[in-house]
Amino acid sequence: MIIRASAKLNLYLRLIGRREDGYHDIVSIMVPIDVYDKISLEEIGSGIRVECTDPSLPQDERNLAFQAATSYLNAAGIRKGIHIKIYKNIPIAAGLGGGSSDAAAVLKGLNMMYGRLSQDELLRLGRDIGADVPFFLYEGPCLAKGIGDILEPLPNRLLHFVLVTPPIHVSTAWVYQQYSFKFGLTKIEQSSIKKKWQDGDIDALLKNDLEKVTITHFPIIKEIKEFLIRQHAKGVLMSGSGPTVFGIFGSEEEARRVVECIPAEIGKVFIASSLQ
Q: Across-strand partners of 15?
C-alpha cells in the first residue's frame, strides 16, 4: 500500500501560555498543501523496519513513522510486522510538519489495512506521538488550540503558494525555548481569526510569534520574505518554527512566474496549493 503524507503551513501561530510539561499552548490556523512524502506499507512476519530515501532521517524508534507503527500494532493487538519505506520530498526540520505527517499517514494506512481502530482512537495515538499528528489525521484546514491537538475544522479555501526552504537547520524545541525567554507570552481573540479566514481576509490573518526569534538568528529568512514581497505576494510568512517561508499569490500561473526568478542558491523551492 502507498499513501501520501502532505505538508502543512501555519498561516497563523500565536503562543498564549506555557504548560508545566514544557509544551506551549497555541492558537494556529493550519492548512494542508499538495507537497507530499509517499509512504509504502508492507506486512512482514515480525518487527518494524523503516527505510527512507533521505539517509539523514533516523530509521529506528526515533522516527515518528516507526513510533506510529509501534503504537498502532500494539493498540490493535496485531502480531505481524510492518516494512515502511518513506519516499522523502518534504524538507526535514523545515516548519512543514513532514515527520508528523509521515506518522499520521502510517496510522491511516495501517487502519486501512486492518480496520481495527476508530478515528478517536487514531487521534489519541497521534497525540501521544506528536502535537501536530492529529491535524494530519483530519486532512483539511483547522483552527488548532491546546498544544495543537484540539482541532476545529474550517471551510476549505483554495490558496496558491510559493515555498522557499533555505539550506539551514532549525530546532523546533530551541525556537520555542527562545521565544518564552525573550518575548513572553501573548493573548488573542480567537473569534477574529476565524472571521478573517471565513471572509477570505488571509493577508490580514498572517502572524507567527516564532518568526522574530528565528529571523534574529537566521537573517536569510528576512531576505526571502523581502524577495517574495518584491514579487508582489499578497502575504508572506515563515511557517511554524521555520525556516520555510511562503508567499501567497493569486494563481498558480503567477506562482510559477515567481519561481522562475528565484536564485537556485537560496534554497529548495516549491509551488503549492491548499488541499481541497
A: 26
Q: Could you read off the pLDDT of 214-230 as tens digits, one per residue?
A: 999 999 999 999 999 99
Give the Cα separation of 211 and 90 in Å (integer): 20
pTM value?
A: 0.93
Nearest C-alpha neighbor of 214 from the set 238, 235, 236:
238
* Structure-block grid coordinates of residue 189: 481573540
Active site residue ranges = 8, 132
DSSP string, 97-162: -HHHHHHHHHHHHHHHHH--S-HHHHHHHHHHH-TTHHHHHH-S-EEEETTTTEEEE------EEE
The pLDDT of residue 181:
44
Q: What is the DSSP letter of 203?
A: H
The domain spans of the chain are 2-153, 160-273
**pLDDT tens, residue by residue, 16-56:** 877 777 778 899 999 999 999 999 999 999 999 999 999 99
Separation in Å, CA 17 to CA 47, 57, 212: 40, 31, 18
| Closest C-alpha to 245, from 274, 202, 214 | 214
Give the Cα separation of 99 and 102 in Å (integer): 5
Phi, psi for residue 4 in degrees, rounded to 5 = -90, 145
Q: Identify the architecture of domain 2-153 in CATH.
A: 2-Layer Sandwich (3.30)
CATH code of domain 160-273 = 3.30.70.890
